Write the structure tokens for this entry.
Amino acid sequence: MDITFIPQPAASASGSKGFTAPLHLLHRPVTPEGFLLDATPPVEQHFALSAELPSEHETFNDGPGTFHDLLFVAETLRQATHFVAHQYFRVPAERPAVFVSSGLDVLDLAPWRRTGRPAHMTLDITLAPVDVVNGVPRGLDCRGDVAIDGVSCGSASARLQFLMPQVYRSHRAAGRQESLRSTAPLVRPLAAMTVAGQEAALAVRPESVGRDDPRNVVVGPPLWAPYGEFVLPVACEPGHKVFEADSGGHVPGPVFLEASRQASLLAAAELHGLRPAHAMLTRWRAAFRGFGDADLPLTCTVATEDPVRDGTGRPSVHTRLAFSQGSRVLCTATAVLLQDC
Amino acid sequence: MRFRVLGPVSLSPRTPSAAKPRALLATLLVQAGEVVPVHSLIDELWGTEPPRTATTTLQVYVSQLRKVLAGDGSAGRAGELLTRAPGYLLTVSDQEFDLPCFERLRTEGRTAYQEGDFGRASRLLHEALALWTGQALSGIPHGVRLESAAIRLDELRMEVLEQRIVADLRLGRHQELAGELLALANEHPLRETLHGHLMVALYRTGRGSDALRVYGRLRHSLVEELGVEPGPGMSRLHERVLRRDPSLDWQPPRNARGTNPDEGGRGAGTPGSQGAARSATGTADGPRPVPAPPSTLPAPPPGFVGRHEELAYGERALRGGAGRQPVRILAVSGPAGVGKTALALQLAHRTADLFPDGQLLIGLRGPDGRPLSSSQAGAALLRRLTDDVSGSPLTDPEELTDRLRRAVHGRRMLLVLDDAASEHQIRPLLQSGAAGAVILTGRRPVAALDGAQHLRLDAVRPQEAVELLLAAGGERMAQDPVAVAEIARLCGCFPLALRVAAAALTARPHTTPAALAGRLHDERTRLGVLREGGLDLRATLLTGYQEAGPPVRRAFRLLSLAPALDFTGWTAAALLGTGQAEAEETTEELVRAQLLEARTDGQAVRYGFHSLLRVLATELREAEPDGARTRRDAVERLGRAYVTLAGCADRQLAPGRAWRAYADAADPSLDAPAIVGASPLGWFREEATGLVETVRRTHAEGLWPLVWQLAGSAAGYFHARAAWEEWEETHELALDAARRAGSVEAEAAIQYSLGDLAWQRREAARALRCYTAAQHTFELVRDRVGAARCRIGVADVLLGQNLLEPAARRYGRALALCSAGGDLRGEVAALNGLALVNLRRGRAETAVRQLAQCGRAAEQLGDRRWTEYVRRATARLTADALRRPSPAANAVEVRPGMWLIGTATPTLTSAGAA
């Protein structure tokens, strides 16, 4: 009858976009029909999500391992929101969900520091439908509270929009045209950027962006730096589990978050002497304006402000970022990096 | 000057040091040369309730005074205090008494001015003013007559001062006057004449723009305070300053006599102000207009902020308009300390223009705190109106009403009756039938008043509370908005509490708002902190409590144990230990006494405490001699009520889940199904906070069985709502209780539930620990159903880790046990598990079959949620093959409303599975 268990985190399973173990997503009904019938009226719904934070994953918390990876939280939330949108809000599968805006906040840094012991994350998610047409929402407002090992320590928010297939296609086509028309910056092809090749000296070292594995580096060395601004190319390793787009698809969401973090780190380290291994992204706000095509070059422009000190004297650097393809801006973001010391 | 009243009352060579003899002296002085009856003197010195020894004491004071007057023996007798029936007479020579000197100089000065001899007028008036050494009749307690005398004298002084200023302006002394006038205008922001003089002085010294600014400030003050524009005289003056009218310039007086033809060019003009109209210029003027009686209303408290809506409502009521008649009686009610009097005063000042004959404030509570009788109230009003203190108190209500009516006849006045206790008390006052209006304040809403409009005051809005704190607390408050908001919250946005808090801060220059907020945090000491100077919040809050009878007081104390912010009838009944009807009666009494708040959500009435009253009630309860015992008994009663109700709701929510019934804990007197109603989920949602708090309380009181019974009855709800924090907290407490009580079965049941919690949260290791421990114990006590349920739990975990074989084995075994034991819920769970296993193995038809079995068992159980879930799952299974993969392909609904997302690879190795 006795069973001994030796918990071992698994390598990422295929088709699950890089998760270690499956998650439980629970619907929290407040109405009788929600309780009995799991009915799905287009009103605000609450969910609880629970997952173990990955301790050895090829992408999530790859790196010096000082902090839990915000990327995992963002990805989990994104996946759960997608699922709920189609399952509970009955958004038809053929309507792609696109993020209009996204935000993350770390409210209490202590639980994010890794202790070597397994850590458990819970997300309290509230999803509110926006612009309901014929009982199906055209958009979703998502808010989540993050708790690690029972301690509330962060919050996340996002706004999604569900486009009609027609609209989606024409948007993408128009965007692509615009990007192709305008002059693209001088960029060397992606293949030459990877560290696996010859030009190791010119690529960005993983340690400088808080990673260990070079495959998890998504930014390249700055192309030029006018007036303290950095312009960096953004590209991901082909075949990357998390960052790669589906073929012919658009740039996936995680890329923007990770690129924001890495670009900010580079700039902050260069200009203000931040140590990447101990710098944590504590705030991220992004607004998405258009789709990025995965096969067109993507650049990120990052500008930093002078560091400010918080109540305990720790420096934090605010950065402003803009992602563009050609002259078309896809995403604008602001971020705050806190040096934990 | 031997006798002085224009300033601190003094008598040289030796002023009596005690206040009352001085007051006696003052009363006699202001009526020097007249006989003052003994009754008036007693009234003046001791008010409406003189001690029995008053007459004797008075005689003592009289002899004291006589000694002083005769005293030094030098310089002859300057004054004599004679006994003349029915009282006393004080004679003083005019040279030795400042008041007649002042009056003489005043008259002479005025004559000189009228003759055009401004220099002499100015000199004389200066002399008159030089006699003053302070506020009239200061340094003594004022009764009614002294008060009115003081006011009259102060007004006289103002009049002389203004006359002197006009004279000086005529003499061209505008340069010197500017400074003095600026100070005066600052002191009296609503006095139009002063501002007029100031404007002229400024204009003549070349500061025309300053003059305009003065006008602006005056106008602003008038509009803000009284809601009126400056009078026509002032507006004319303003225009002339704007136009730089050359007639405003100073012209030296042509001659000592005769008029200056350019009358209109006099800077002082004739500002037609309201209130004290003084026309001090010109020979051509007619007799001076009769000054309006000074409004004897106290000024509104400084720093009155907020209450905009209530003030607007009151003003609208009093002014009427839009087809509505102005209301005659406005009744303001609310708990003690909520700011009724302040609001009434503010309203009175705002509507001063409606009541040209003045406004009066009558307090309806005696100095000992007891309400005045109706005849005393009537007498008080009569005294104020007529200055009549003759003789015996009026006991005949008819006569009282009659005299009141005569006194009020024809006058448009506003009466503010403060702290009314009942309609009976104020009847004579209302019946006097003035052409004005009455503002009534009182704690209980005085019902049965004809034509009355009611205004109920409650705690202010949080925004207004912050405003009040900032206004009263000054700079330091403004520096820490977060702390200010916290203080407002801890004070329950209650005006008196806010004022005391602000006072507590200003009295200690070294503390910060954050520190004050910290001190206020602890409920047990909060009322003690809110005590400063003469303001004591606790005392005010206690007034309502003290007036209530013993059963109501007991209820107030006990109901503070209510576990949530508000509660309904059954909670009250449980806490009070009575039937529901009786409890509801008592709570309604509490509401009437303003000790409890009530609101209705359309179906049931919910009662609640204002936060400060709850603190008070808790204090009182703990201070009772057997406080701990009472609390324990009440908590026990409440716990049993909750167990009964929650158990009933749980049985409706998840039938068959709780296989161990706690029959002995149920309270048969409670009509549980009626209280819970048709929606168990709704009931739990409303009562969840209270239930969790009750678990904490029963644990704190050591009532161990109740703790785990409560936790167990709520587990189904927590499970359905994934309320993880509450689930964990209550069950940890229950586990502790079970261990302390040594109840092994209870411990096992809690462990099993904790296993469920861990499993919901995907904490596999912890879940297994809990399930196996519980299973072990269940087997020890031969609880087959329990053991089978734990087996199912373990199987769930294994399934989640994709260990299909071990899971399937356990499900099968559990199914057999449950069928044998008649545990339908267990069967449902086991069959569901088997179906999921087969689904994972790819055996769809078997899965469908098992789901169908599961569905039948659920139907038998009467659990609609599971029945629907089975239907959904079956539909998905059968349709999946046909449809293209849905976005939920990666997700499986494993329980109603619970999804497993993402496929798993084996993460656990098993050794020696059973």
